[in-house]
């Protein structure tokens, strides 16, 4: 679990990167999810997240 932070303020953006490091019969990698920490849940995102600073 790796929360994505604003570069200038280090404030959370509401997006968390979940890193899948071990998966018996599937791919390894990472996925971005929307964090709903007010209700202790992660929600799948229906749109791709652009990397901050990418041009």
Description:
This is DNA helicase. Keywords: ATP-binding, Helicase, Hydrolase, Nucleotide-binding. The protein is mainly beta and 55 residues long. It has one domain (2-42). The protein contains no helices and four strands. The protein has strands spanning 2-5, 12-20, 29-36, 41-44. Strands 1-2-3-4 form a four-stranded antiparallel beta sheet, with no helix packed on it. The termini are far apart. The mean pLDDT is 79.
What value does the Rg take, in angstroms? 13 Å
* Tally of strands: 4
Mean pLDDT: 79
- N-to-C terminal Cα separation, in Å? 26 Å
**Proportion of β residues?**
over 45%
Give the low-pLDDT segments: none
Identify the strand order in the major beta sheet. Answer: 1-2-3-4
Helix share, percent: under 10%
Total of DSSP H or I helical runs spanning 4+ residues: 0
Structural class: mainly beta
Keywords: ATP-binding, Helicase, Hydrolase, Nucleotide-binding
GO molecular function: helicase activity
Protein name: DNA helicase
